[in-house]
Structure formats: C-alpha cells, structure tokens
TrEMBL record:
It comes from the Bacteria. A motif (TonB C-terminal box) lies at residues 974-991. GO terms for cellular component: cell outer membrane. Residues 61-168 form the TonB-dependent receptor plug domain. This is TonB-dependent receptor. It holds the Pfam family Plug. It comes from Thalassotalea euphylliae. It is a multi-pass membrane protein. Coiled coil: none annotated. Residues 1-32 form the signal peptide. The lineage of its organism: Bacteria, Pseudomonadati, Pseudomonadota, Gammaproteobacteria, Alteromonadales.
C-alpha cells in the first residue's frame, strides 16, 4: 500500500500549523485563482465556485483554476474540450481525437483520476450526463456564452454531492448579455484537411429597465474527418513489440506489397510486422489443435503470408456535426426576489469508423466438403487434422473440435472441424457507428431575501439525453456459420431458403453482393437517460455567533437536495446474441441495461471569521461543510470539509483544506449485465509466445485454467493486444461507494504595485479508497500465473486452451479496487507590464507537477505507477506540464503566444521489457500557438491563429503501446498533435 513520502508529510504538517516558509519551497503547479472583489465593492455579496455561501470579500479556501472568456477566444475553438484538454490539471478524455473506443462525446479527466470522478456543472448546477455512466458530454456547453471555466482541485462532495472526487469543473455563463453577437470561425490543417467550421449567434436584452435579462445563443459546428492514411505515420500499423514497419516509415516507404497469390486491397507482407492477422486471403486454424495456415488466392493452403493494413480507414479526427441553443433569463418579480431559468438543447452527431469487418478468429463448424475449399487445401486440412488426432489434440481439453460424421475414426471429407477463420470482409465496406445524441435540460428557480440578511434559493432541474447508435458494415457471425455449412455452394444445410452460401476461401471479391447481404449486419442501440434535481437552501449571517477578534459573524448555508437518475439501454435483438452478437468484429454482445438510483441529501456549510484587522492577521477564517446523503443503492454516505484562510498581511493569503469526498456507483456500475467484450493485454503466459519460459509450476497453473498438457505453450498468443473479456456488474457483489481523502494547502501572493503580480502555489493530495473499477485482463493473468492466486485463476475461461476464441475470455467485472491517488503541486504566475504608448504586455503561467499518480487493484498485485508513464494501464501522464501565454495589447490590436510543455515520459517498465527499444520513451514536447486579433471598428473584430507553429511531429510508439482508445495511428493523438500545423481564422460582429 502507498505510504506518503516524507516530503509530502512535511508539507502537510508545515502548512497545517502555519509554517508557511516550508510551502514557499514547493515545486511548480497550476494557477489557483482567488475570487476576491475590490475594496470599494465590499458591500456586494459574491460567491465563488466550490461554495454556496455568498459573502463580502469572498475568497476560496480550495485552489481554483479559472479560464476566462478572453483565453477561450484566443484558443479559437467551438469545442470547449480543446480548452480543457490542454489544461495542466487534466489529461485527455474522450473527444475528437478518439476513434476506436469513442462514445461519441467529449469528456474531461482531472488529475488522471478518471472522467467519472470529475463533476461537471453549469452555474453551480449538475449537467445532464450523456449516458448511464453518469459522464457529461462537454460538447453540449455553448462556448459563446461562457464567462469563465472554474476548475476546483480536490474533493467538492460536501458542497455539490457525489462525483467530485478529483474536483469540479464549473462553466460560469454570461448572465447579463445585451446586444447581438455573431461569431464565425474556420480552421484547417497545413495539409488542407481536418476542416472545422462553426457559427454562433447570441442575442440578449435587458428587461423592464434593468429588472431582468434574457439571452439566447444558437450554435452550429461541423468538424470534418482526418484519416490515419492522410498522414505518413498512419499509413501502416507499426508493431510496438517488434518495431515491424518502423523502418519503412523512417525510410518514407508505404506498406510493402504482399507476395503474389496472397494479396488484396490494403494487404501487406507478413514480414512487415504491422497490421492485423485477420487479413485476405483467409487465415485458418483448427481450434486447440495447433494447426494453422493461410489460404492463397488460388484456394491453396500454406504458411501465413500476409497481414491486413487496417490503419488507413481509421480517423485521427472524428467527424462531428452539432447544433444547439441555450436560453438564460432572470427577472426581479419583486424588489428582493428574482426568478431565473435556463434551457439547453443540443443535437450532436459523431461518426466513428474503423477498418472493414471480418471473422476475427470466430469459431465455425466447417464441413471439410465445403465446395469453395480447393483440393490442395482440403488435403492439407485432412492431413494436419489427422496428425493432431494422433497427438491427442482433437476432442480434448473440454472442446469438441472434430465431428466424425461417418464414425470411421479418422478425419476425412465427410467430417466437420471446429475452426477459426480470420478473413477481412472488405466487400462489406468499413465498420461505422453513428452516434446521435439529443440532449435537453431545463432549470427553473427563485432566489431572494428571506429575512434581513438571510437569502434563499429554490430550484428544480430536469434533463434528458436520448441517444441512437447505428452500427453498420459488420459481419453477422451466426449467418456466416449458416452460410459456411454448405456442400454444394448453392444451398445451406440448415434448410433456410434465404441463406446464401459464402465463399471465404479465395481472394478479394469472392464475397458477392448477395453473399454480403446475407452475412452482414446493421444494428441499432437506443440509450435514454434522465436526471431530476430539486434543491432548496438558505444562507446568511448568524449574528449571535461572532468572535471578539472578528469583524463579521458566522455565515451559514444549509439545505436539502433530492436527485433521481435513471438510465436504459435498448439494443437490437441480434445484438444480444452471445458471445459475439450479430456484429462480428465489434468485440462482444450488448444486453439491455435499465436501472437508476435516488438520493436524499442534507447539507450545511459555514464560514467563521476568527480574526480581522490584527497585526498578525488581516483576516483568519475557518470554512467547514457537512453533507449526509442517503442512497437507495448503497445506503448513507457522509462527507465533510474543514479549512482555513489566513491573510497575515494584505498581500499574502495562506489556505489549507482537508476534505472527505465520496462517489456512489453510477447506473452503469450497478445495473450493467454480464456481456462479452475485449480488453487490452500484453501476453498470455500459457501461449506459444511464452513457450520457452514455461516451467512445471506454470504448466500446472495453465492446466488448472482449462488447458490440456498438450495445449500448454502451443495455443496462439494475444491478438492485436486484446483478449476476450466478460464485463459488466456482478449482481451478487455490487460495488460500494468509494471514498477519498483530499488535502490542499498553499498561498497566493499579490502585489498591485509590482506589475499587478499574482503568484499562487498549491499542494494537493487526493487518495481514493475502495475505488470502483475493473481488474484488467493482464492483471488477472499475472495474478494467476505469476502469483498463483486460485481466485484469480477461476476468472480465466479457456476454449481449446485459447483466450481469443468466441466464448473464452477473462472475467473483468466491475468491483471495488484497493486505491488510486494523485499528488502534486500547482503554480500560477500572472503579471502585466505597461509599455506606455506601446500598450501592455501580460504574462500568464500555469504549471502542474505531479509528485505521485498511481493505483493498485488489490494488495497482492503490484502498484501501477503512472507518474511520467504511458502504457496499457496508463494514459500518457507527464510529470510536469505548463502553459505559458504572453499577450501584447495595443489599442485595437492583440498578439498572443501560448507555449505548451509536456515533460518526457517512459513506457511502463513491465511493458517496456517486451517492446521495441525506440518505443520505450517519449521525449519532452513543446508546442507554440500564435493568436492575433484586430478591431476593424466597434462592430467587427478579426481573429487569426496558428497552432503548433513549428509543425511538431507526434511521437511514434506503434499500435499496441496503450489502450485502443488513446493509442491510435501509432501514436497518442489525444495527447500529441497528430494533425500537424493548424490554421484558424474568425470574424465577430457585435451590435
């Protein structure tokens, strides 16, 4: 189990007891902005993100990173995900750079602790999740209406409720917009592709001489795709383990053509090392018999001769079309009472595309007399099958891989064999999934003065997300089984008149349109999610509680919240078919999900001024909160926070906060049925890939998981970095809520006389216990075959000794894991230098430095250390990242440069040992982005920008260096720019 370092303990001790000199020695982190009003505005009662209390001179006891509307404008994007993705406090989540693994959404991942542990708010209220995992699609946020984006570090569950383990992201919207604003933006890469166009129209007006305001913002975005094949790096799959294909890339060569009689579209040589083993012509294997080969175009059968280059079909940038509208209004119905409302609607369509489908090693009962098998191939199959029979590999190890139809004791033309076929079905076209999401959310409430200085706020919100996913271009494995069971090539032996026999034993083009129509599949999945929240709270000063050294009494906020969330997934009937559904090549089946939860919460929050106006303390405040949440799913959970804000002198603020945060399991984590799918893995220790290292102990462990002695060391290894998995929720062992201890401490120094200087340093330590998640497939394999843990061996299900055959796999059900944590330091530096007649220079620096970022699934398994690492367990997590912006303003002209830095990272040690040496580390990366704007007049403003000015190439790591979600096109396109230089232009009309 992780033990805090002595440095971390010293920091915590020193800051907790006021020894601020220790804090001044901490390394760098991100800017933590305090929300503080000027002295002349002290009568106004304001609020900051992370607190429900409005009070004069409010400051945050928790670090807050704030990104303003001007910074968003300079990034020139209609997609807020680009702003969030580049923050040093985050690592990339789902978004436009994710293809194979996208959910058709844009998410945010604070501190690399998982998107499900980041609470996303709009004006301090929950946004409607886009699916049953409770995750918000930030694409639904209207960028043109954003006033600022506030990111709170550390748990905020005591204030906002569950999910704020890593912190909260709050989109603060413009509340009093007046006039007309039309914004038109365009961007494209230096290669002339990847276009993104957007239009946003915002209208606003005050009401009844300032008694209220109403604003409406309408937006449209169209993002075009960029294919892997549009870039040299993406032309061919490069093998992470061997480096196959890497030299060809360095030499500027395209994929190497295959051998004669072993070709087809996008087929490359077997020796190239890259690409997929599901190729053209068909690869053949008898299940569990150690017999394999590959057909040729002339229908003969011999050794493997080709791979399929799947890369060019995939996207570096997924296409998206989105339109939406948001209305915000408030009106003073009486002098001290205001009604408010907001309504949001978005329609988002995202298309994912991967290479054409195939049979991907699915198992079929194949009649040896199938007429499409050539004579030489038939003899080859019979001879090798009989040798396997003599070796004891037919009908052994719990698998029936031979049907002796004529009962003569030998394999011959009358018999059936259980075989694996790997044939890429290009004739069906690429596999696509279109995600269409319609989302709306309505908020209505009233706020005002309850009595004297006591205020109230009562609101109700309701939201729905309705999604339709249409998948096409896939093989229908059940129908292919029917179509293979033919001995005349005209009719199928199942007697179905609609069945069309299929020819998988020649080259490209042997699948006719009629065959494709019967053996392909298109399927639809509907997802529905709803959320309703009722909140009532009151806040104000408790005059009876005021300390003698303080200048103000205790301020309290307390209230009640009711929340109900429900989700449902409705798949097509054919998607339910186990183990692979009708969508062969999709990784598994889909079963209906229907579930939800409700929670009743009571909360209280307070700020107690302790000292004010003394020589040792301009101010010293204590901040506290407590929330009790009663879930109908996991019972009662309690969260709290306690912190201090101390200003020894006017220019220095010292702050410290200890919190306990919780996250209750979401709908998907408590209601997902068991389904089959795919999971990333490095090696099957019982396979041919590890044959030289199998000793007697390992052999017995392999046998204990369903292998025969003859199969050990002879079955195929992991295919393309993936094995089959059984996923979902175990109804007899539902996950409990997870808890987090979060600690933050730091200081903010300001000096208005010295360039308006502001420096902030904040330390954070977030440790999540009982974290909800899944054991990875490789962890289960290691726990069984390295540590001999019987309970983990029981999770391994083999067929024919294999883990890649349909029906086999590893149980990776959702459960409670041991822990995960993120620890680090943030620094923010901001100042401005006046240049008299030459305008002003502004400097803004945000830095994050991780001290630790790790997790452990159980005490018997090794710690996964993601600090400065990448791999199958870790998305790229640089130890240090920073953003440095320099801006020059001169009257109507603005020029700005943004320097983005990511420190170098290394592959996870266990994975690096089996990987090509050049792919074991990634050097530090630095990106330079430029922006310029000019006001032609008071109504028209032009903007220009260039991202990645120096056209930095992304790092090359091959195609199996990480999860398929983030490792694509031989790199990590969500972390590093795979598109090269990007040009941006826009115009804004204001009236």
């Amino acid at each position: 189990m992780f033990t805090k370092t002595s440095v971390a303990k010293s920091v915590r001790f020193a800051l907790m007891f006021g020894a601020t000199s220790s804090a001044l020695l901490l390394p760098q982190t991100t800017f933590a902005q305090q929300a503080e009003q000027n002295a002349e505005d002290e009568i106004e009662r304001i609020a900051v993100t992370g607190s429900r209390i409005r009070r004069p001179g409010a400051v945050s006891a928790s670090p807050i990173v704030s990104v303003g509307a001007q910074e968003i404008e300079m990034i020139q994007t209609p997609q807020i995900e680009e702003v969030l993705r580049n923050l040093p406090a985050t690592i990339p989540g789902d978004g436009g750079s994710v293809n194979n693994g996208t959910a058709g959404a844009a998410t945010v991942n604070l501190r690399a602790l998982g998107t499900e542990r980041t609470l996303v708010l709009m004006n301090g209220r929950r946004m409607i999740p886009f699916n049953f995992n409770g995750i918000v699609d930030t694409a639904s946020v209207p960028v043109s209406l954003i006033e600022s984006v506030d990111v709170v570090t550390g748990g905020a569950s005591a204030v906002y409720g569950s999910d704020a383990i890593a912190g909260a992201v709050n989109f603060v919207m413009k509340n009093n917009f007046e006039g007309v604003e039309l914004l038109i933006n365009h961007s494209e890469t230096g290669d002339g592709d990847g276009d993104t166009d957007s239009i946003a129209l915002t209208l606003g007006s005050s009401l009844s001489d300032g008694r209220g305001n109403v604003a409406l913002s309408m937006n449209w975005t169209d993002r075009k795709p960029t294919f892997l094949g549009d870039r040299p790096l993406g032309l061919l799959g490069i093998a992470t383990a061997s480096g196959g294909g890497y030299q060809a890339f360095l030499d500027g060569q395209g994929p190497i053509p295959p051998l004669d009689n072993c070709g087809g579209p996008n087929v490359t040589t077997f020796e190239s090392g890259g690409g997929s083993t599901t190729s053209i012509p068909t690869r053949f294997a008898i299940v569990g018999a150690g017999v394999s080969g590959q057909f040729r175009e002339d229908r003969t059968l011999a050794d493997d001769c080709s791979r399929f280059n799947f890369n060019p079909f995939n996207f570096y940038q997924t296409p998206q079309e989105r339109y939406g509208a948001t209305a915000i209004a408030h009106y003073d119905v009486a002098e001290e009472h205001t009604v408010y409302t907001s309504a949001t609607f978005t329609n988002t369509q995202v298309r994912q595309q991967v290479a054409p489908s195939g049979t991907f090693g699915s198992t079929f009962n194949l009649p040896i007399a199938n007429p499409f098998i050539g004579d030489q191939a038939r003899s080859w199959i019979i001879d090798n099958a009989n040798q396997a029979r003599l070796d004891g590999l037919l009908n052994g190890g719990g698998v029936t891989n031979w049907q002796d139809i004529n009962n003569n004791g030998v394999v011959d033309n009358d018999d059936y064999l259980l075989v694996q076929l790997r044939r890429r079905t290009l004739e069906l076209g690429p596999r696509t999934t279109n995600f269409e999401t319609q989302l709306f959310q309505l908020v209505a409430g009233v706020e005002g003065v309850l009595y004297e200085d006591w205020e109230y706020d009562v609101s109700f919100q309701y939201g729905e997300s309705n999604r339709t996913n249409i998948s096409a271009g896939y093989t229908n494995v059940s129908n292919i089984q029917n179509a293979l069971d033919s001995t005349d090539g005209v009719t199928c032996n199942n007697g179905d008149s609609t069945c069309v026999p299929i020819d998988l034993f020649g080259g490209f083009g042997t699948i006719t349109p009629e065959m494709a129509a019967y053996s392909s599949a298109t399927a639809l999945t509907k997802q529905e999610y709803s959320q309703e929240v009722f909140n009532a709270n009151v806040s104000g000063p408790v005059d009876a509680i005021e300390l003698p050294w303080a200048g103000a009494p205790l301020s309290l906020s307390f209230g009640y919240e009711h929340r109900r969330e429900t989700g449902e997934t409705i798949p097509d009937e054919c998607l339910k078919e186990a183990p692979t559904s009708c969508l062969g090549g999709a990784g598994g089946n889909v079963l209906p999900i229907k579930g939800g939860f409700k929670v009743e919460e009571f909360f209280i929050e307070g700020v107690l001024p302790i000292v004010e106006g003394e020589s040792f303390a301009e101010s010293l405040d204590m901040e506290f909160a407590f929330r009790s949440a009663d879930y109908d799913s996991v019972g009662n959970n309690e969260t709290w926070k306690l912190g201090f804000s101390w200003r020894p002198v006017d220019s220095l603020l010292v702050r410290v906060m200890q919190q306990e945060a919780t996250r209750a399991p979401n709908v998907g984590e408590i209601a997902s049925p068991s389904v089959t799918g795919l999971d990333n893995a490095l090696i099957d220790p019982c396979s041919v890939a590890n044959a030289a290292n199998i000793d007697s102990t390992l052999r017995q462990l392999c046998i204990s998981t369903g292998m025969t002695d003859a199969q050990v060391g002879r079955v195929q290894d992991v295919i393309s970095g993936q094995v089959n998995a059984f996923q979902g929720t175990n109804p007899s062992q539902l996950p409990d809520a997870e808890e987090a201890e979060t600690f933050t401490a730091g200081f903010v120094y300001t000096n208005e006389e010295l360039w308006d200087l502001e420096v902030s340093v904040d330390y954070y330590d977030i440790e999540v216990d009982n974290s909800i998640g899944e054991f990875t497939a490789q962890q289960t394999l290691d726990a069984c075959y390295q540590f001999g843990i019987a309970s983990e061996c029981a999770k391994i299900v083999r067929i024919g000794g294999d883990l890649t055959i349909a029906g086999s796999g590893i149980q990776t059900f959702t459960t409670n894991l041991s822990y995960r944590l993120a620890e680090g330091v943030e620094v923010g530096i901001n100042f401005a230098i006046g240049l008299e007649d030459w305008g002003e220079l502004r400097f803004n620096t945000d830095i994050n430095h991780y001290i630790a970022n790790e997790r452990q699934s159980s005490e018997v398994l090794p710690v996964i250390d993601c600090l400065g690492a990448y791999g199958n367990n870790c998305s790229p997590t640089p130890e240090t990242t920073w953003n440095q912006r320099i801006t020059w303003d001169l009257e109507d002209f603005t020029v700005s440069m943004l320097w983005r830095h990511l420190s170098g990272i290394d592959m996870e040690p266990a994975q690096a040992a089996g990987s090509f040496e050049a792919f074991r580390s990634i050097d530090a990366y630095d990106y330079i982005d430029l922006f310029a704007s000019y006001h032609i007049n008071e109504h028209i403003k032009l903007t220009l920008g260039v991202d990645n000015v120096t056209d930095e190439d992304p790092p090359v790591v091959g195609g199996e260096a990480g999860s398929t979600t983030f490792n694509s096109g031989n790199t990590f396109p969500s972390t590093y720019s795979a598109l090269g230089r990007i040009y941006k232009a826009g115009v804004k009309f204001t009236f």
